[in-house]
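Case study 2.
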Amino acid sequence: MTLKWMAVVVAAVSLTLCATANIAVGTISGEELPVVVNLLALTAAGCAVVLAVVGELNDRLNGRITALTEFLVARLDEIEAHAGDRNSGFVEGYLLSHGQQDAPVVPIGPRLQGRRAMLGGED
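Prediction:
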């Protein structure tokens, strides 16, 4: 049983026991149930209701995130199927037509001209 439904059961049982105890004590002995017992039952029911609402909102949020994820995966698959091989073939064809089959790798050197690094404060 999920947390949401456990909270609903706790709230229902707590309110039922509170009402039953108040009715039983009031009809049998003519007295009232102590305020502490009533407050404890109402507090438990209130916390359980809040927990149930938060659980329901969490379930809805998870459902929306799952739906969004599935939509994005389907859309990305569609885009990949549409543009996947065509672009790679275009780049390879372009490089072959310009005679750049094996382009040399040139390391990028440091560019220190025109840029100064500030290490601490003003120079």
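The chain has a mean pLDDT of 81.
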